[in-house]
Amino acid sequence: MGYEARAGIGDPAGAVLQGTAMKWHTNGPPAGYRTLPTACGEPAFAHESVRMLGEVTLGRFSYVNQDSLLAGFLPIRIGAFTCIGPRFYAHTRENHRITIPSAYPFQLILGMDLPFPYTRDPRGDGINIGSDVWIGSHVKVAEGVCIGHGAVVGTYSLVTRDVEPYGIYVGVPARLLRFRFSESVIADLLDIAWWQWPLERILQNVKFFSTDLQKVKTSIKNLIE
Ligand SMILES: CC(C)(COP(=O)(O)OP(=O)(O)OC[C@H]1O[C@@H](n2cnc3c(N)ncnc32)[C@H](O)[C@@H]1OP(=O)(O)O)[C@@H](O)C(=O)NCCC(=O)NCCS
């Protein structure tokens, strides 16, 4: 594996990784990734091994890492600037009916005249994941779940319920560990909705994006160019 894989913040190789990331927009994604179209015309990215079947939409600059599966009979909607780690699994309408004599999908395999073999989650239509969400590796999100903007989902979590904006959720089933920021900072971030800014404005706001918002004393709106 190339040394980009061990690059981290503060690591000299981190600069290389950042340089590579910049090229995702200007020169296309690095080897192994493909560019996906989004509604606004700016790209999203997915590793070549990612499988997307059915109605899956990604917002600008979101990406999905290796060996993930996003599929099903209902929409999966992902906002902008969302990072999805490797081995992510999101599948809608995947629950076999279990109140009938057999959970086997006779209709699909043997062509028998029976009702649709999968049940729909009554909580909602598909899966909705907001913007600026970071999902760790090996996460599964159940149908009907809505993940709020800015949330973090820890590695190997199973998300069965809605996730609050800017909450950090971990475990099986995933539970709130803590919030990333204070209530007022979260309210400001949701109000700012930086993920909707034009790209030029995002690129101008290095100071804002590098500020530790757990330490800031004034309104975070003062940090924005
Ligand atoms: C969720 C996460 C960001 C939390 O990091 P953190 O704030 O530093 O959390 P800590 O390591 O201090 O752990 C706090 C508690 O949560 C638990 N915890 C952390 N991550 C967990 C997870 N994924 N599942 C279950 N419990 C977890 C810890 O065991 C600890 O529990 P304790 O207080 O009982 O000891 C991190 O653990 C994580 O999962 N990151 C994803 C990494 C990844 O998958 N990267 C690759 C894709 S980009």
UniProtKB/TrEMBL annotation:
Organism of derivation: Megalodesulfovibrio gigas (strain ATCC 19364 / DSM 1382 / NCIMB 9332 / VKM B-1759) (Desulfovibrio gigas)
Keywords: Acyltransferase, Plasmid, Repeat, Transferase
SUPFAM superfamilies given in the database record: Trimeric LpxA-like enzymes
GO molecular function, one term: acyltransferase activity
Protein name stated in the entry: Chloramphenicol acetyltransferase
Ranges in coiled-coil conformation: none
One Pfam short name: Hexapep
InterPro entries: Hexapep (IPR001451), Hexapep_transf_CS (IPR018357), Hexapeptide_acetyltransf (IPR051159), Trimer_LpxA-like_sf (IPR011004)
Keyword Amino-acid biosynthesis assigned: no
Top-level taxon of origin: Bacteria
